[in-house]
Specification:
Blueprint: H1 5-20, E1 30-37, E2 43-48, E3 55-57, E4 68-74, E5 78-83, E6 101-105, E7 112-117, E8 126-130, H2 132-156, H3 163-212, E9 223-229, E10 232-238
Parallel strand pairs: 1-7
Antiparallel strand pairs: 1-4, 2-3, 2-5, 5-6, 7-8, 9-10
Helix pairs in contact: 1-2, 1-3, 2-3
Length: 245
């Protein structure tokens, strides 16, 4: 049973898309959200009570242009981003000097980032909401589009699409997907290694600082031994048993 070359290509591209879709969202409802203010003005962020529709201020008291704001929330929570009038002008940048607003809702996914940007002449802000699954889909779409383009070009330039030519086209798609995935996995591995190295170095610095601070309250010793010197013996309490210590 043989499928046409294009059907094989679609099958392989579909399997690659499943790989890039990423893991399922956490069962826990709590999510961490980062809001990036790129609107050019100061804004306030309010949580909207779903029952009373009351606005509850989250920023303290506002978010400057170019700044970011992190908050812990829960999926389905709805937020409003509202422009503040200029300190000198006393007016906002919307049509007829009205203050612009924008809205976003926490979804099921991780690594959520909301970009607040000026609208194109509209009453509200442009709200760009990204997360781990959206970024995975965009990455997969870019990767698969390039592989598909190469496969279609190879097939369209082949006059006689016999078994050997179909096999070569399929192998080309497989190779393209494998190479692209390998490159992405390599970048992820390098990032994990880099972060691990940073954490290890920070741990060493914190341990050495802790040992040097005589006024810091100590925890229970890992072990107790003694130190022999010219004047006799002294008790030694081992608080941290690490090579850096």
């Amino acid at each position: 049973f043989l499928l046409p070359a294009m059907e094989y290509c679609r099958l392989l591209l579909g399997l690659a898309a499943l790989f890039w879709a990423g893991a399922e969202a956490k069962t826990l409802e709590e999510r961490k959200i980062q809001v990036m203010n790129e609107s050019g003005v100061k804004v306030q962020i309010h949580w909207i009570n779903p029952t009373t529709k009351e606005r509850v201020l989250q920023t303290d008291p506002h978010l400057f242009n170019g700044a970011s704001f992190n908050l812990n929330s829960f999926r389905t929570h709805h937020f409003e981003v509202r422009e503040l009038p200029g300190a000198r002008s006393g007016v906002c940048g919307g049509p007829e000097q009205q203050c612009r607003v924008g809205y976003y809702t926490v979804n099921d996914n991780d690594d959520q980032v909301v970009f607040v940007r000026p609208g194109d002449g509209e009453d509200g802000f442009e709200m760009v909401h990204t997360d781990n699954k959206r970024m995975a889909r965009e990455s997969a779409t870019e990767l698969l589009s390039e592989c598909q383009r190469k496969a279609i070009k190879a097939i369209s330039t082949t006059e006689d699409m016999g078994p050997d030519a179909a096999k070569e086209a399929i192998s080309s798609v497989v190779s393209c997907v494998e190479n692209s995935i390998s490159a992405e996995l390599m970048k992820s591995s390098e990032e994990i290694s880099f972060q691990k190295n940073i954490r290890t170095k920070m741990g060493d610095l914190l341990e050495n600082y802790t040992c040097a601070d005589e006024d810091l309250e100590t925890t229970k010793a890992e072990d107790t031994t003694f130190w022999q010197h010219d004047n006799g013996y002294s008790d030694v309490h081992i608080m941290i048993d690490r090579p850096a210590s």
